[in-house]
Every structure is written in structure tokens, then in C-alpha cells.
Design brief:
Layout lengths: L1 H18 L6 E7 L5 E2 L4 E10 L2 E2 L3 E9 L5 E7 L3 E7 L4 E11 L2 E11 L14 H12 L7 E4 L8 E9 L6 E9 L5 E6 L12 H5 L3 E5 L10 H8 L18 H19 L2 E12 H12 L5 E7 L28 H7 L4 H5 L7 E4 L10 H10 L4 E3 L11 H14 L4
Parallel strand pairs: 2-9, 13-14, 13-15, 15-16, 16-17, 17-18
Antiparallel strand pairs: 1-3, 3-4, 3-7, 5-6, 5-8, 8-9, 10-11, 11-12, 12-14
Helix pairs in contact: 5-6
Length: 428
Amino acid sequence: MKRLLTLCCAMMVVMGLSAQIRGEEIQVLVQPDRPDWTYKTGETATFMVYVLKSGVPLSDAHIDYAAGPEMYQDVKDSFVLPDGTLKLTGTMDQPGFYRVDVTAHVGGKDYKGACGAAFSPEQLQPSTVMPNDFSEFWQNAITEARKTELNPTKRLLPERCTKNVNVYEVSFQNILPDYRTYGILCVPVKEGKYPALLRVPGAGVRPYGGDVWTAAQGAITLEIGIHGVPVTMDQKVYDDMFHGALNWYWEFYTDDRDKNYYKRVVIGCIRALDYIEEFTPWNGKEMGVTGSSQGGFLTLATAALDKRITYYAPVHAALCDHTNSLRGIACGWPHYFYYNKGVGQEKQIEVSRYYDGINFARLITDKQQGWFSFGYNDDVVPPTTAWETYNTVTAPKAISPYQATWHFWFQEQWDEWEDWLLKQMHIK
């Protein structure tokens, strides 16, 4: 018994120690000389590079750096920094982002830092062309999909319910019979009519927990998956899908607008609104959609195609301005035409315009309120395309960049995002 207790105590100590690992002793900071990281074209930005160990500049730090327009950096060099610091400058004569990436090599490991400075970002305009039949294509697709009944299923998840919120796994037919969209529905226990929020996912294949917290504030929330499979299975099942049948799914049928993987994904978002309207106690007034990355694109598409949406919040929206790289400017994820400049991809270029968040942004109306947020250091969704998307929208909108974020968000950013959603639902 003593040996067992000793073993248990040792395991608890190890677990406690591992839970305390947080951050790294070595930091690479790249700081601009303006607090908002923003300049006018033709001005010069100054960047201070610091390689720190325990918060103090590290002597004789070895670094590599790249600088220039994001995704097209044309200045590269290596240095040894005697006092752990370096001053760099950069400028742009066209609107865009000048990015500095620094990698420090310390003790056989690499540590990275970056800074993306904005030059007249409010003047950025997209390259993508809107097809003449863009709206017709999507409205016809929605009409055709609605010939298939939703035929929903609903299963209570008792282990996820709280005293204030009932949680269900639901499904409904999407674009064709037997092709289903699955999600987690959260509904307040108290009888009544409620505002609604659709949460749409970022790229990948994963289970979902549902937005119980927002539902507890007094809203219906529906968080959906996009791959036509249940969203409550073990993680390994999704990992196997992601590395198997769904590997690089965003590349599926990019040369065919009718078979493109995102067609049924976008339609699934619209059918999710149909489900909310028909099968939940929605109040018939406030209906919103939000998501980040791929989910930011789906947010734009859903708001554009369905005027039941009264508020929408895309965060670092992907799939925006695919063709920007054809003119040597940063393009949106998945960077379809970046590596070969579109050579031999004429059909893919044409099809991409039907799946470009910019063209959906052009359809958002004055009765829909928008909130946009993203980071200037994002190396997945370039802030160039995020600003272009924001500039494209002519409807009421707000913008709240968190400059130092990469492809993630800070706690303060999340709090502001959630607060904005609650205000749109008239809960706060």
C-alpha cells in the first residue's frame, strides 16, 4: 500500500509539473515604431528586433530575417547581433503590408517573431471578378437543395446539459437525400422565444462541443460540422478522415463549380438556418452567423445568401481574393494560385470566383451588421485580404484588428467578439 501511495504521489507531482509548462524562455520580438502598426504609403516604418532570454537581450544571437511585401518578401539576410538587438526599416509605395520575419537560432532550436506593418490599408481593393451569374448560381443551388426535405434527427446529450441549457446532437439533410449535416444544438431550458446564432467551423475535421455558454445567456446556438459525419465521435476517427479520405478536401473539384467541395458546405449553412427557423424556438428576429478562418468565409457566404441573417462576425476570414497572387499580391488561404502563378489553371481561376469570400461580401445588405477582426501577423490569412474584404462591404460594419495576433486570437479579442454578438442579440 505504501508503495502504491508513493507511486500515486509521484504521478501527481509529474502531472502537476507538466501542467505548469508555459511559454519559452527565449523570445523574438519585432516591434514597429507606431502603436497601431499603420503608415501611409511612402512613409518609412522602423522595426526593432529583440532576441531576449529571461526578458533580457541575448548577446551574440544568430538570426535570419526576411522582409518585404507579405508573401513576397524580397530582402533576406543573416546576422549575429552582439547586443541582441537590430534596427530595420521598410516602406511601400502601394497599399499593403510590409512584413518582417525573424528566426533566432539558440541552443539548436529556432525561435520566431514577426511584424506586419500596414500601409494605407483602407485603400486596399481586391482583384477577384464577380461572375455575371454569381447570384443566380447560388440561388438556384439553394432552391434545388430545398427540394430535399430536412428530415431532421435530434439526440439529447445528457452529459453536456446544464441546469439552464439542453444540448443535442442534431442532423438534417443538406443538398441531396441522405447527405446530412451534423451539429450541436444548444437551447435554453426556460420556455420562450430566443435569438439564434449559427457557428461555422474553421478548416479541418474534428468533433464539436457546442456553444453552451452563449446559450446560457439566452440564445439558441447551433454549431455545425461540414463533412456529413456525426460530430460526437472520438478524435482518432476525425484524424483518420483528415489524413485519409478528406486529406486536402479544400482542393476537391476546384475545376468544377458544381462539384466543388464547398458547394455543399455553403448550402449546408443555409439549410442550418432552415433548421433553426423550423425546428427551434427562434424569435423570428435576431439571426446571426460567426466563425474564423474557413468559418470566416462561411460567415460571409451565409450572410450574403440569406437575409434572415441580421448580424455576422467573420474573424480572419479565409478563401478571400484567390486571384490576388496573379498580380503578385498576397492571396487568401488556401493560396490556390500562389506557387505557379495560375499557369495551366484557367478553369480553376474561373471556378474560384464562385467560392471567393470577396464576391459574397459584395452581396451583404444594409440591414446586416458586421464585425471584422484579424491579426497583422497572420501568415495563413494575410491581413491584405482581410482588409480588402472589409473594404468591399458597403453595409454597416465595424473593424477591430488585433495587430500582434497570428492565426489565432487573444483572450481580449475573444471577449470583444462575444460581447459584440450578445449585443446584436439584445442580450447585453
